[in-house]
Amino acid sequence: MTTMPLPVALPAWQHLQALANEPPVPLRERLAEPERARRLTWSAAGLTLDASRQAIGTEIERALLDLAAQSQIAEQREAMFRGEAINTTEGRPVLHVALRGGEAGGPWGNAIHALVQRELDRVCRFAEELRAGTVRGHAGDAFTDVVNIGIGGSDLGPRMAADALAHLASDAVRVHYVSNPDAWALWSVLRGLDAKRTLFIVSSKTFTTQETLTNAASARHWLADQGVPADAIARHLVAITATPAKSAELGYDPERTFLFWDWVGGRYSLWSALGLPLAIGIGAAAFRELLAGARAMDGHFLHAPLQENLPVRLALHGVWNRNFLRMPTQLIACYASRLVRFVPFVQQMDMESNGKRTHLDGSEATVDTGPIVWGGLGIDGQHAYFQLVHQGRHALPVDFIGVLSEDTPLPLAGAHHAVVNLNLRAQAQAMALGRTLEETEAQLLKDGADAETAHALAPHRQFPGNIPSHLLWLDRLDPGRLGALIALYEHKVFCQAAIWRINAFDQWGVELGKTMAKAMERAGG
Ligand SMILES: O=P(O)(O)OC[C@H]1O[C@H](O)[C@H](O)[C@@H](O)[C@@H]1O
Question: Where is the active site (predicted)?
């Protein structure tokens, strides 16, 4: 498949280019089409995607589906699930999909299944023993605090999921996350903790990451400083890594080392042993539900027709917006405050995967690749940067993510939820429809402005509209739906890389800075 033609050479790409050169149909017109919302809404694994506000009509849709077929998305997908070495620059398979639990018999083979199950069982057992207080510190105290030290993929996933599932968090064991090597980041967590009851998890795929090793060394000094005897420090440490030889060299007990493998990318590692801090926080059963939700999305991605395949649709609409409507960013607005870290997580997953300028065949990219992913909590964004979205000069698409059913145990929770979802729907509609100059002037007059004022103010208060968006609804925010949501974005990123003919699974772009930091350190800073 590496000999496949580049995207610009595909007939569907050229067709899409021609369609993009035609005058755009306003979203107002499109939204007036009968049955449009029903036709462009699909559900899977507890998620519903409403794409009716994308700037697409049936011809564009057909051409996008042709592009999916001509790009051999299905064949590339199967190659990934079969464990082919699709990460070509590192000669590795990409098998985070094999980590989602489930029965033997997956396309990656039973040997990998057995490896994964054994480690998953170890992780779950350890998490439960720690929660039950049977794993203890050197002086026989149950652990009350766990500090995960890790950065990038060794931090963002479990941290994001811990926030998203905060309603399941254990009262007995608090889990903290430290990523930044600034001393304050570690200190601000440690200053309230009792060393006898604190366990550090050092999460690092490579166990060479300077920031993580700096924090880990500092944590060990803190333990010693707090009176933990030198020969007992290992009882307060856990390592999670794909390079156990390195962690062993640094004194981490192999019994307390949990493994994943080089065929799991850091930004795709939440499903592996790297999920231990999350499993400690929410319990092993909930962690397994998260995996099951991702597995449900994998099944959908593998088997649903491309036309109603959620990851494929997200990817195709993204390609239309990025490559043909020339929108360089992707805003994600989450309307559930527990999804507060979802955007930073997707930002790494998408930008580190598809922020590439070289095709698989080594030639320079001939098309725009990964967008700039940004955003955060939608409601907060409305009171901050949405001004630019509505009236600024950047054209950009939005993914609105909401939750249909909420059960926070607060007397007025229903009223809160109604406000949140009302705003989500109103924003999507306002961005799509906009408000013309004439409508704005008429509204001002209706509101009592005199003719001169209405005329003067209307240009400032009009909205161009035509901002394309997806509405993505989770039935509820639980481990299963969260797993499905994460897997959906993982597969979207995969499909876009498949279309752009780039390797989503290396990250050479982060190397140069690291190399220079090392060189400067050697040269004395
Ligand atoms: O898990 P580690 O080996 O410590 O790596 C942590 C992170 O650092 C790197 O610089 C990479 O860009 C990330 O992909 C990775 O997740």
Answer: 352, 383, 514
- Report CA(203)–ligand 1 centroid distance (Å): 10
- The domain 96-288 is placed in CATH, from the list 3.40.50.720, 3.40.50.10490, 3.40.5.10, 3.40.640.10, at 3.40.50.10490
Reported ipTM: the value is 0.98
Tell me, using a 6 A CB cutoff, whether residue 348 lines ligand 1: no
In CATH terms, is domain 20-84+304-379+395-404+473-510 a member of 3.40.50.10490?
A: yes
Cα-to-centroid distance, 207 and ligand 1 (Å): 9
- C-alpha 149 to ligand 1 mean position (Å): 12
Q: Tell me whether residue 308 is one of the annotated catalytic residues.
A: no
Reference 481, options 405, 377, 415, 416; nearest CA is 405
Task: Evaluate: CB of 312 within 6 angstroms of ligand 1.
Answer: no
- Cα separation values, 450 from 438, 440, 442, 463, Å: 15, 13, 11, 21
- pTM recorded for the entire structure: 0.98
pLDDT the model gives residue 3: 73
Residue 370: per-residue pLDDT: 98
Mean pLDDT of 465-474: 98
